[in-house]
Amino acid sequence: MFNCSFKSIDKDQWLEKYWQKAPCLFKNAFDDPPDFLSPDELAGFSLQEELESRLIIQDIDNNEWSIEHGPFEQSRFSNLTESHWTLLLQSIDCWLPEMHQLLADFNFIPRWRFDDIMVSFATEQGGVGPHADNYDVFLIQGSGQRHWRVGAKGDTSQAKTVIDGMSHLQEFTPIIDVVMQPGDMLYIPPDTPHWGISHGESIGYSVGYRSIQTHQMLALLTENLAESPEHQHFFADLYRKKANDSNFFEQQVVQWAQQELIKLSRQPERLAKLLSQQLSLSKLGIYSHDNTFIIQTLTEDSEIQLQQGVGVNWLLYKGKVRLNIESESFDFALKYQQAVQLLASFAPVSVKLFNFSPELVDFPSALASIVNRGYVNLIK
To answer: Model's pTM, two decimal places?
Structure first.
């Protein structure tokens, strides 16, 4: 257990010991517990069609659980009991910009791993039941108290599907058993059982990190191949010298498929291009074009900053620095690597680092594209 500010811990040591390996409790992780939304505001958000919202309700008389998906009618909440239910709002960071204040404390994890921030309001004894997730999550106590029991990573063999894809675990042995106070935080790696029960009304925030899966990677390759006829190869059965009148499926087809996959695996630049583009797309692909300036508005003393909420990453690609924003790619010369890295970290960046001056025309055209596309804000 860490009984100190989350900002003060050695992040490298923590990553080596806990990240994707074991759950971890931070007491007093935040000096100022997050306080972004009231219960009424949360209920108001759940009425909107654009937001993903859910109600998890426990019927204590029959020991049954149910799940309802929003948007909800306002009258729905007046018909609920005073206990044993939880309201969840997914991707609240896409609709409430101030939520990005939380992400600043997690900048030691690359933003392309970030999925979303979920907020939950629970009544007395409310929760979602004993379960495990397939992503990394930091559970931050905002207001009220919640009793959390957390098991060891991998102790999830007794899963039982309850309803609508929601799976509950039957029994697990807790290695963390704590009542979370405002400002406390739990880290839960994938495939780790956990169960939180609210003591009175409470609000919690979940900062989630999800990664790409094999089927998504293969789908990317399939889409790319469909758009690139020069890379498509037909199966050829030149080996056929004898009749096959039994419709026996021949092993040569499998060998051909294996060879095609091996050829793709030997194209790391192609894979880097596809994966980095895909992983720079924010969950909902939503960002706000608040700025109205274009490249001609800048002066040599200007500072710009990437808009909070956009998906971004950068890599070295074919001798250049490639910046991916919302699946769009912008290429810079290697001499701009420091500037690109700062921009991708959401730090304020002087345009002088991009060799910008109104009198010059040799600043990178990619900078003009990023500014004119509305991906940055002018902060000075």
So the answer is: 0.88
